[in-house]
Specification:
It is a single chain. This protein is an alpha/beta fold and 274 residues long. The chain contains nine helices and seven strands. It has helices at 28-38, 50-62, 77-90, 113-116, 119-141, 170-190, 208-211, 216-226, 235-246; strands at 16-20, 42-47, 69-71, 96-99, 152-158, 195-202, 257-260. The chain has a seven-stranded parallel beta sheet, sandwiched between helices. α6 (170-190) links the parallel β5 and β6 (195-202). 42% of the residues are buried. Bound molecules: NADP nicotinamide-adenine-dinucleotide phosphate. NADP nicotinamide-adenine-dinucleotide phosphate binds at residues 21-23, 27-29, 48, 52, 72-75, 100-103, 128, 157-159, 202, 204-205, 207-210.
């Protein structure tokens, strides 16, 4: 499949959702947004601050719809209140949520986890990368329809560093473990309302967030060489999985962490050449 070809259709027709975490054209959130849009979804985009708005607006405008963009700094309650007030005001109802946000300080994404993780760094990584999903899920669920009227769906982005030790991923691995556990607890709370909550554990991809991790190039190469498919994880693969989880195709699937990493997660030993 060519880089920017996303299958078109009507799987998301009539559904409205918030996409959080588009920073540029390489962002995972942008790939997911393009796929959902190609299937008829109506999208709102949140961005952290004004500087980001300038970068994200041209992308959103390229979709051809009237852009719906709102500020949301996930560390700031006033900002989150304003974001959801704007969504309520414009749409009243929300059908899905894409959470593709994470942050840890550069000094913490290198070397020894034990020695380099400060209290503040730990708190910040946890707040932005894990608690933000709890907070956003609660706010979004309050705008989602009842089970009888279709419920809703949410997806967040995680990485294998939550389950296994990945050099330099450090505090982010711990935050991703909290994100995945939160996904299961939220899925149980919101299940009776017909809201499905899942996470995609994506293989390494070249994005801004990835550039912040020391040794990212080696992670990419190892991901490719050790993977079952012997290839990089593609944005189309991740976006297709998000479409599955957020559309009615994903009914009955909740509380799940879906690995989309060319099979890397299940390999214990690399190929042996004798
Ligand atoms: P990205 O393009 O850099 O996206 C990360 C987003 O998080 C950016 O839009 C960033 O905004 C936002 N963010 C950070 N702090 C925020 C805050 N306080 N409030 C609101 N937004 C904030 O990188 P990405 O790789 O697509 O990351 C998306 C998600 O995928 C992350 O959860 C990441 O951990 C996950 N993931 C990535 C990979 C990979 O290899 N790339 C693999 C597995 C999972 P700013 O630019 O303003 O900081």
């Amino acid at each position: 499949m060519a880089a920017s070809e996303f299958p078109t259709g009507t799987l998301m027709k009539g559904k409205r959702g918030l996409v959080m975490g588009v920073a540029n054209k390489n962002s995972i959130a942008w790939g997911i947004a393009q796929q959902l849009h190609a299937q008829g979804a109506e999208l709102a985009f949140s961005y952290q601050d004004e500087a980001l708005e300038k970068r994200v607006r041209p992308l959103v405008e390229s979709l051809g719809d009237e852009p719906f963009m709102v500020t949301a700094d996930v560390t700031n309650d006033d900002s989150m209140d304003a974001c959801f007030a704007a969504l309520k005001d414009k749409w009243g109802q929300l059908d899905f949520l894409v959470h593709a946000i994470a942050f840890a300080g550069k000094d913490e994404l290198v070397g020894s986890f034990t020695h380099n993780t400060t209290r503040l760094g730990f708190q910040r990584a946890m707040d932005i990368s894990a608690y933000s999903f709890v907070d956003t899920a609660r706010r979004a669920s309050e705008m989602m329809p009842s089970k009888e009227d279709g419920g809703g769906a949410m997806v967040s982005l995680t990485y294998l560093g939550s389950e296994r030790v990945v050099p330099n991923y450090n505090v982010m691995g711990v935050a991703k473990a909290a994100l995945e556990a939160s996904t299961r607890y939220i899925a149980r709370d919101l299940g009776p309302q017909g809201i499905r909550v899942n996470a995609i554990s994506a293989g390494p991809m070249r994005t801004l967030a990835m550039a912040g991790i020391s040794g990212g190039r080696t992670l990419m190469k190892t991901g490719r060489d050790w993977s079952m498919l012997k290839e990089d994880t593609t944005i189309e693969g991740v976006a297709g999985s998000a479409l599955y989880l957020l559309s009615d195709l994903g009914q009955s699937c909740t509380g799940e962490v879906l690995h989309v990493d060319a099979g890397f997660h299940a390999v214990a030993v690399p190929d042996i050449e004798e």
